[in-house]
Write a structure and sequence with these properties.
With 154 residues, the protein is of the alpha+beta class. It has one domain. It has six helices and five strands; from the N terminus they run ααααααβββββ. The chain has a three-stranded antiparallel β-sheet with strand order 3-4-5, with helices on one face. A two-stranded antiparallel ribbon has the order 1-2. A hairpin with a 2-residue loop joins β4 and β5. α2 packs across α3.
């Protein structure tokens, strides 16, 4: 195995995208991977402040579960990492209104690719439902229109 292949293997192990290569201490690599996941979670919390408010103390544990099967995006940094995490979270639980709004805002400006986020070309029409505020948000480009809907009574 060449040096480049060995380096790629240890990076994959540290980002939890591959097994720990032979010759490395499993516990130490896992401890380093945990530290890197925590650093990723902190960066995502800074880029997505609504997540910290929504999840509180659960943020680190939920993010650790997420990173156990999610690759670090190659493009877009913590914003792209956070957008992928929010997409994953939406399948687990309802999103807080401010997180749904930030996701809509990110989606208006950025396009998701296999490598992460890239700038969007041209306007986009987007939609989000805010359950706490009981309103729908329609976004056209960078402009947003809020539509308050009446509560349905049973």
């Amino acid at each position: 195995m060449t040096l480049a292949e060995q380096q790629a293997a240890i990076v994959a192990a540290l980002t939890r995208n591959g097994p720990v290569p032979d010759g490395f201490d499993l516990d130490r690599v896992q401890a380093a991977a945990d530290a890197l996941a925590f650093k990723r979670a902190r960066a995502v919390a800074r880029a997505w402040p609504g997540l910290r408010a929504m999840l509180g103390a659960e943020l680190r544990d939920r993010f650790a579960t997420y990173v156990s099967h999610a690759r670090l995006p190659e493009q877009g940094g913590p914003l792209a990492d956070g957008r992928a995490f929010v997409r994953w979270l939406a399948g687990q639980m309802p999103l807080a209104d401010d997180v749904a709004l930030q996701a809509l805002s990110v989606d208006q400006r950025w396009r998701q690719t296999a490598r992460g986020l890239v700038p969007r070309r041209g306007p986009r029409v987007g939609f989000a439902w805010l359950p706490t505020m009981q309103c729908a948000i329609v976004a056209i480009g960078a402009r947003e229109l809020r539509l308050r809907l009446p509560r349905l009574r049973r």
